[in-house]
Amino acid sequence: MDREPHSGRAAESGPGPTGRNRPAVVVLCRPGNLHCLRELGAGMEEEGVPFRTEDATGGSAVELAFAAAQASNLDVGVGVDDAGSVCVHHAKLPPDMPALAGRAADARTLGHNAARLVVGIPFKDAPVRTGQ
Amino acid sequence: MSLVVGVDIGNSTTEACAAEIGEDGQVTYLSAALGRTSGVKGTTANVPGVVEVVRGALAAAGRDPADVQAVLVNEATPVISGLAMETITETIITESTMIGHNPDTPGGVGLGVGTTVAFAELPGCAPDDAVICVAGAGTDFEDVAAGINAATARGVRVAGAVVRADDANLIVNRLREPIPVVDEVTLVDRVPLGMPAAVEVAEQGRTIRTLSNSYGIATVFGLDPDQTRLIAPVARALVGNRSAVVVRTPAGDITDRRIAAGGLTLIGERAKRSVDMDAGAEEIMETLRRVQPLVDADGEPGTHVGGMLARVRDTMADLTAMPRDAVRIQDVLAVDTFVPQRVTGGLAGEFALENAVALAAMVRTSKGPMELLAARLREALGTEVLIGGVEADMALLGALTTPGTAKPVAILDLGGGSTDAAVAMEDAEVRSVHLAGAGDLVTSLIDSELGLESRELAEEIKKFPLAKAESFFHIRMEDGTVRFFDEPLPAEAFARVVVLADAGMQPIRTRHGVEKIRQVRRSAKRRVFVTNALRALEQVAPAGDIRRIGFLVVLGGAALDFEIPDMIAEAVSEFGIVSGTGNVRGCEGPRNAVATGLVARHASARATCAAVRCG
């Protein structure tokens, strides 16, 4: 792999505001969940929505996602907790009512859907998995 | 004073009207009630439904069922209607010539031409080869990008790519030189390899220019005029897409085939004519006009229409214990429609809009088991049950209680299975007609044209306005106004078109926009109800002249629809007649006409009796 797993191409390129002021979906993730982050990022990148990743200190996926949404100037955040739960939140929703929730295995779809929440197009269904 | 209840058993609803009748025939209406018809109209299965509405009406009036002197029931004759659809065109792609499914996010921009090669074979390509890379399931976007970059570095000209997963942008973002990439090709393994191919992706907000143009394809592949003529349908099929792939194979083609849909035989009083279903609705209706009045109809065995007509006949024969060949089809309505169908041979689940003809048919008998029904009702209710009055006459009497109406009056009853019309001229002569095609056909058209595969959802779309969920807290209605919510909307509704049904908001899981769904809904209603309203009025109007009808009262469930009455008013406005939704007794709206008519008829009959006794 010749790239950092958690850097979205769309967020890096082009002039304009930088760092925390840049419009982006914020992903708050407990350190170490690299595969999940890569898949989330891939989903958002495919939809063409910029994102940035920050390390989280603790909390549930819902709490992290809500905090991330508050920090995002696109009002959309993603939280990933130690247990592998992933949550997509919107800043205007009540804290305990996330837009979407799922498992790390669905991270690519959740990434797509976090981006779609910004773009305003209908969510994608998670691929059907067997043997669970 | 005597207490009576008029009961109208309809195809889908049973209505009751409770009233007091004085000695002089003076009627005091007390209440009305409405419930679902149990079973097929005019059969003993109706008893529970009738009992329920009679009790409902009496409860609403605060009267004791023991005081009821008579229950008046209309002469309800069973109506069976059927619907069938024949698809008459079919699109077939042979040898996987093209991919035109319009993924949400294709990658790169431009046109790439080369020979198709599997991703795994890329390292084996010679420098200067122009290739289109085909990556199957399970190939990661990083690997694909790295593989293409490596090949490009060796001098291989990778001009474009076709991939299975939704990762076109991910691949393109990692390439040193961007190329057009079409993704989400489900059956990517069937893309023919070693063939010349072209991949085109347009900029966002634009559509492809080269592959949707016959001469564009001819230029790309160096085709002669004869070959160009052959690929013209491919270009036509790709018009309007943002991305496309065309593969040049020896016999690759896309064809619009006409499917023989069988014939329909229409037997009139004087003539008998056959018409092919694939001739289209206009031709079928023209044939019907030529043989009218219709005595019977038959469809070719083995076709949908043939099966439907046989089913209608069987059901009616079972219900009325009539011999099967004594059951006659009284009317048919053909409507042109289109059905989104999966393209045969498509690689990415492409759909094409195929032409189809929908046909509604109805049979009606004069011989319902009414006496048996009346006897059962007598048992169940413990009161006298009187059968009386032809339905159309009763409906006219009831309709005339609408403020502002007078003879000559016509009624139009838009139901679920049939459209009924009747006209009463000053001389009390009543003419009535029952036509095939009503609400159920509209539902079918909406269902098939939008590819919903859910009659329930189609029914809701027919009945309720649309909106689009624009955020978690607001929706934009189809007229452009906005409605806000305190509670967040469900995630399934986000950014989707929803139908605002009574039971709540229901998301419509298609790619159609509000405008498209609205247009299909309105056009389905117009093609069925407006067509049938004019057809019915022409048949009952004196000498076929609609202008001689003074007042038109629209009744039945469809009269409560939020747009059908307006469409009908618009359609008949050119005839200079007064048209509107009925308001039976000035308070019931388009409901309860027959039940009210039964009471009115009973009262006037009593008054006549009383007068005779006095004199």
Automatic annotation (TrEMBL), chain A:
Lineage: Bacteria, Bacillati, Actinomycetota, Actinomycetes, Streptosporangiales
Source species of the chain: Planotetraspora mira
Residue ranges, annotated region (Disordered): 1-23
N-terminal signal peptide: none
Protein name as it appears in the record: PduH protein
InterPro entries (UniProt xref): B12-dep_deHydtase_bsu (IPR010254), Dehydtase/Dehydtase_re (IPR003208)
Organism superkingdom: Bacteria
From TrEMBL, chain B:
DD-reactivating factor swiveling domain: residues covered: 93-254
Residue span(s) of domain Diol dehydratase reactivase ATPase-like: 275-600
Domain of life according to the entry: Bacteria
Gene3D superfamilies named among the record's database cross-references: 3.30.420.40, 3.90.470.30, Nucleic acid-binding proteins, Swiveling domain of dehydratase reactivase alpha subunit
Membrane-spanning segments: none
Pfam families hit by this protein: DDR, DDR_swiveling
UniProt-listed NCBIfam families: reactive_PduG
Designated name of the protein: Diol dehydratase reactivase subunit alpha
Taxonomic lineage from the root: Bacteria, Bacillati, Actinomycetota, Actinomycetes, Streptosporangiales
